[in-house]
Design a protein that fits this description.
The protein is an all-alpha fold. It has a single domain, classed as MFS general substrate transporter like domains (Growth Hormone, Chain: A), CATH 1.20.1250.20. Helix 3 runs parallel beside helix 5, helix 6 crosses helix 13 and helix 10 packs antiparallel against helix 16. The protein is globular and about 60 Å long. 59% of the residues are buried.
């Protein structure tokens, strides 16, 4: 029963997180029409929440190893709900940037807690797959907010942030009452009063940042950080700039929003699939195919003719590859560390990814301001995608070697 409620609450949190993470991108057209920002100002706006995400992930992960996963998760959900709702009252680009930065603090604290809670309430052989499948709810949340934007006029962009705030504010008090704390966390913190429990012998000190580099964990930490940084750089650049790039390439606002929905739905379905495959014999093939397909699909989108059917199909498949890759990384992060330092280890990895999230939208804004066409901009990303794929494959090898 505890497992069922934990998974259910993590799925609902991931849905809310997906809505808020993509709210900025789908509201961009309405914001642009009202405030007339430059491309660089848009890049700063897109990056604001990810700066908050960076600090939220670092602080939340560290605190959770001491006070518990549940407390940090509930507080984080309430925080990003409050500030997402306040974003709908912004009066200029500066107020938008500040509100999005504060929203990011909550978003950053919530994600590492989901990643820690799911494996700590799952059987060892099913942990990676269940983390990936819970993460699949994030792009579904993005698809929901994209669909909402499709059904309303661009001038109603404030409603997007209002919805993104109300949903987590409803969820947070329910979680405070009904979400159980991680049983693995409770065992670790009961150990001083409960004798020498077998599963805590040799555990590093709770919340110890240096411990994520000791005990043979340095190499996997480096690969994990590099994979998160490069992977989230690509993901957030696409989430924030893809609708704008597609409209620049000749699609209407409605067609671009539809393609964005396809990106999210494709990604969510692929995340569910890879979650299933990570628990079975086809695990290695699924990982290799995902990371080999990424650069191929990016080049295909860059070179595709401006025909709706071709672009939408390619964007759908690219969403499958990009978000399946992220689901794999989120599954690997908690598997890389023992319970006592899982919060700080996962939080640090997510924080490194958030640096990529900050760089990605800003990079898109710089390339766009420099006059790069949509095709050129996508091709500029190819070296980043190749490097990220190599790091992720090395990470998979290192985690598997450490567990064998």
């Amino acid at each position: 029963m505890a497992w069922d409620s934990t998974i259910a609450f993590c799925v609902l949190t991931a849905l809310c997180e997906g809505m808020d993470l993509q709210a900025a991108g789908v509201a961009a057209a309405g914001i642009g029409a009202e405030f007339k920002p430059t491309s660089d100002q848009f890049g700063t706006f897109f990056s604001a929440s990810t700066l908050g995400l960076f600090f939220g992930a670092l602080i939340g992960g560290r605190v959770a190893d001491s006070v518990g996963r549940k407390k940090v998760l509930v507080a984080s959900v309430a925080l990003f709900g409050i500030f997402s709702l306040l974003t709908s009252f912004a009066w200029d680009m500066s107020s938008l940037v500040i509100a999005r930065g504060l929203t990011g603090l909550g978003l950053g604290g919530a994600l590492p807690m989901m990643l820690a809670l799911v494996p700590e309430t799952s059987q060892p052989t099913q942990q990676a797959g269940r983390v990936a499948m819970v993460y699949a709810a994030t792009p579904f949340g993005g698809a929901m907010i994209s669909l909402l934007s499709l059904l309303m006029a661009g001038t109603q962009w404030r409603t997007i942030f209002a919805v993104g705030g109300i949903a987590p504010l409803i969820l947070a008090p329910i979680m405070a009452f009904a979400l159980p704390e991680s049983s693995a966390f409770q065992r670790i913190h009961a150990a001083p009063n409960s004798g020498n429990l077998p599963d805590v012998v040799g555990m590093p000190k709770s919340g110890s940042f240096p411990a994520i580099f000791s005990g043979g964990r340095a190499l996997r930490t480096v690969f994990l950080w590099a994979s998160f940084f490069l992977g989230l750089l690509l993901l957030y650049l696409l989430l924030n700039w893809l609708p704008t790039l597609l409209t620049s390439d000749g699609l209407t606002r409605t067609e671009a929003a539809g393609a964005q929905i396809g990106f999210n739905i494709g990604g969510a379905l692929a995340a569910i699939l890879i979650g299933y495959l990570l628990n079975g014999r086809l695990r290695n093939w699924a990982v290799v195919i995902t990371f080999v397909a990424l650069p191929i699909l990016l080049v295909t989108l860059a070179k595709s003719p401006a025909q709706l059917a071709i672009i939408c199909t390619t964007v759908f498949l690219l969403g499958c590859a990009v978000i399946a890759a992220q689901a794999f990384l989120y599954a690997m992060a908690p598997a890389a560390y023992p319970t006592s330092i899982r919060g700080v280890g996962v939080g640090a990895a997510v924080a490194m990814g958030r640096i990529g999230s900050i760089v990605g939208p800003k990079l898109g804004g710089m390339l766009k301001s420099a006059g790069h066409s949509p095709s050129q901009l996508l091709m500029d990303l190819l070296p980043i995608v190749v490097a990220g794929s190599i790091c992720a494959l090395l990470l998979a090898w290192e985690v598997r070697r450490a567990k064998s």
